[in-house]
Amino acid sequence: MTQRALDSSGEQTPGPSRPAMIDAGAELDPVHPVEPPPPPHRPDGLSTAEVAERVARGQVNDVPVRSSRSVTEIVRANVFTRFNLIIGVLWVIMLFVAPIQDSLFGFVIVANTGIGIIQEWRAKRTLDSLAVIGEAKPTVRRDGVAAEISTSEIVLGDLVELGPGDKVVVDGTVAEADSLEVDESLLTGEADPVLKRAGDPVMSGSFVVAGGGAFTATKVGREAYAAQLAEEASRFTLVHSELRSGISTILKYVTWMMVPTAIGLVISQLVVKDNNFKDSVARTVGGIVPMIPEGLVLLTSVAFAIGVVRLGRKQCLVQELPAIEGLARVDVVCLDKTGTLTEGGMDVTEVRPLNGSDEAYVEEVLRTFGASDPRPNASLQAIIDAYPQREEAAWTVTDAMPFSSARKYSGAAFTEAEGAASAWLLGAPDVLLPEGDTTLAEIEQLNEQGLRVLLLARVRGHDLDAPGAAAGAAPTALVVLEQRLRPDAGDTLAYFADQNVATKVISGDNAVSVGAVAGKLGLAGAENTLDARRLPADPDEMATAMEGHAVFGRVTPQQKRDMVAALQSRGHTVAMTGDGVNDVLALKDADIGVSMGSGSEATRAVAQIVLLNNSFATLPSVVAEGRRVIGNITRVATLFLTKTVYSVLLAILVVCTQVEYPFLPRHLTLLSTLTIGVPAFFLALAPNKERAQPHFVRRVMRYAIPSGIVAATATFATYLVARHHYSGEGALEAETSAATLTLFLVSMWVLAIIARPYTWWRIGLVAAMGLGFLIVLVVPWLQDFFALKLVGTTMPWTAVGIAVAAAVLLEFVWRWVGRRFGA
Known about the structure:
This protein is α/β, with parallel strands linked by helices. The chain is about 50% helix and about 15% strand. An eight-stranded mixed beta sheet has the order 8-21-20-19-9-16-18-17, sandwiched between helices. Strands 1, 2, 3, 4, 5, 6 and 7 form a seven-stranded antiparallel beta sheet that branches. Strands 10-15-14-13-12-11 form a six-stranded antiparallel beta sheet. The protein is elongated. The N terminus is likely disordered.
């Protein structure tokens, strides 16, 4: 059979070059594996007794499917962090030298860590349950009966059946082959699908492109090639996440700022100032703790985890957590028509004989053609439904050539009732007919109605694989198919249009027919179609054509991949949806790959997001969830980093002026809880439909830095004024209370700005935080607990006045930054 290139990838799937379980010196080679002699072929497969015997010996495919981190890994990741270590040490110190209220920050960290563990554990349970639902179910022949079983139930020697789109789940040797073509590019990077014959090895991780057959399992469990690759790289991997990498960058900068500032503060408070030792330690710790944005990482993890749980309830499996964020940043969505805009099934609406062909004869050809493929695609299944096989078949199939996306047609050869031999092709008319053929005009009219048309053509010779077979085929009949539109596809396309996300429909079908289907669903520019055979090969010219058209037909699998790359070269973030084996390569290269749950095993394996309910309408929910995460984390990150900036700057000012640090840990615990901790939790989980913007670090820091500077300057100004105003016993406590009032009011104004645009619950949230602080100021025992007592009226009102001036300055700075750098 003529081989067609479906992939030109030169990339090798990441994995260990020599897994630990391989003998020393034996390199793992998926192309030329060292194989034992092929086992004898047993058409009926293993017996029940043999399966039980192998299970007892442990010869079973027991590799666990991991869709998330283990509970131990979750606990370790949430507990053993750099900042938890710093805060833990400071907490232990404070437990020995100060009252319990100065150690409250430690209990807050314990609570935060617990929340993070619980939320990620909930997300793990959701992921694991959905992974079981979406797990591949290979067909295994035992005692002569074929049945679907779980991948983990395959035993050594099992006879596993294969069809188009099936993934090879364990290593084995081909026992039966019917034009079987296997793509090993995800393992080897080799471009061409490989024609497999009986006795040839097949590797786990490869998938079937065309044809069918069966193989005998020779390696199962951790001995299989794909399992060896997965030992070091489980499925819980991370796609590129600007949010995660941005937060890591921020934390790195914070560490660099914090270390020298903390050292200076320690020296200043413990050596230079001749104060009570315990009080100096408490104020030193009070200066260091707020520099750490300890809740930022927690809230990011919680936001992602809750997003996974929410989408899981909608039967959406997020195989890589930051894919939620990635889809929210997408500005181009490439859709495969079949299975995405249309449902999987089709109906034969008409058969038109050509060139005087007999209608009854054509029907018999189609009836027998349907029997030629044990694993028919949607088009052939529609023909089988319309012309079912009779119990006593008059014709017999002598040869068959399965459908291939590269060829755009399938073939079959028969021995007819009278003993005559004939060979036939069934596929795309514009591929089988020469350009300018009069029949194409008739087909064009049908395509314009959104109908799909197949051409049945008779091969003059009987060699289906002959290079000129398609060119010399004689047109015999047109088979007109009607596709079933997804009822929710139109609303989903309208959503993307409203969100300024460009939609490109990419299909292997006729471009005019695809455009008509897209037009029925209301896609803007659906009439602007392009036949991919006329698509320029130059990447830059292809990118221009991609941006100028909305619908593409007659696209080969390799072209799908090239089209994704062309769009990415223009700076677009591309999502690709699909369900067929011809979509795998494009799904793999797209920024975000989205597969239907009913799609082939290969597409589900490479996609970051799997829609288990097969509903294209779920995508807006994923986009909305991603926007909620990104927008809200940007908001709360500004809150956390404003605190870090003003804490560092206050420490620097204290060191430079050689005064006591104004705050005890209890003061900043109270302020952090009311102006950051509680509000950030609600803001991080709130609805947010803002379109995701790039440059996370820059967007956060351009607001956090000026806000922190204003807050620190206003607070320190109040502190210095209070130092001149108060004197005598209790002066430091009065000065601290005045400075705390200013810092709280300024921080509340930052919160009020970040909470915009206001809704009733946002206003209520800000008001509740203000009320909480007011209660502390007026309730005597809370005054004593938090060491907050405003003395007199002059200084408290001065503190309020300075805070009001700072709030006005904040408004000016935020508006200037918005105009200067964009919102």
